[in-house]
Structures are given as C-alpha cells and as structure tokens.
Amino acid sequence: MRSNNKANNLIRRFRQTHKLEDLEEAISHYKAALAVRALYGARSTSLNNLAVALVELSRRSHKIEDVDEAIKCYREALVIRHPGHPDRHTSLYNISAALLDRSDEHEIKTI
Q1: How does pLDDT run across 38-90, given as a tens digit for each residue?
Q2: Taking a C-beta distance cutoff of 8 angstroms, is the pair 24, 10 a contact?
C-alpha cells in the first residue's frame, strides 16, 4: 500500500511539474505495489494505475513498448473486472484510449 500511495503522490507532482523523473519513479512504485497486491488483492486497481502511468510515459517517450505494456496491464485488469464488475467500464474506456494512442504512435513512426 505504501508503494501505491508514494506513486500516487509522484503522479500528482508530475502533473504539476512535468518532471519525467517523477513519472518514471511512480511507475517503479506502481510495479512494486502490483507485486504486493498480487498477494493481497486489489490487483485490478494496481494494474489500472500502472497502465495510466505507462500511457502517460508513452506520450512523452513516443515508445510503442510503453503503450504496449499499458495495454497488457489493461487486458489483465479486464480479466479481473469481469462483465458486471462496477469498474469494468473504466477498464474498457482506458484500453480503447491506449489502443488509439498506439495506433496514432504507429502512424507517426511510419510517416
């Protein structure tokens, strides 16, 4: 839980300062939180948080690998957030936005 809170604080700071180091550190903390939550539950929330940060990183880095990792996290969250789950719509929206980002990035790379 501490890693997740630290990551959330770093994301807030990143949104104010736009320092890439904060975003990268937040991603590290989200990954640590995901490892713990795999044992204790709330995995879908950790996957979603990590994916959101990775999409943000991909928008800065223009690396398809970053958005691909985010899409992988969103897909795993969708397995957990089965039809009827109260947060499934959020996962569906987020994965569709990440897929659009990936498509846009692919177009930029091929131009």
Answers
A1: 755 588 889 999 999 999 999 999 899 999 999 999 999 999 999 999 999 99
A2: no
- 81 phi and psi angles, rounded to 5 deg: -90, 70
Hey, what are 89's tokens?
Answer: 């719509």
Alpha-carbon radius of gyration of the chain: 14
CA 48 to chain centre: 5
The proportion of the chain whose per-residue pLDDT surpasses 90, expressed as a percent, equals 70
What is 26-38 written as a DSSP string?
HHHHHHHHHHHHH
Q: What residue segments make up the domains of the chain, in order of their start?
A: 2-110
Instruction: At 3, list the tokens.
Output: 């890693």
- Cβ-based neighbour number of residue 107 at 10 Å: 9
Q: Give the architecture (CATH level 2) of 2-110.
A: Alpha Horseshoe (1.25)
CA distance 37 to 80: 13
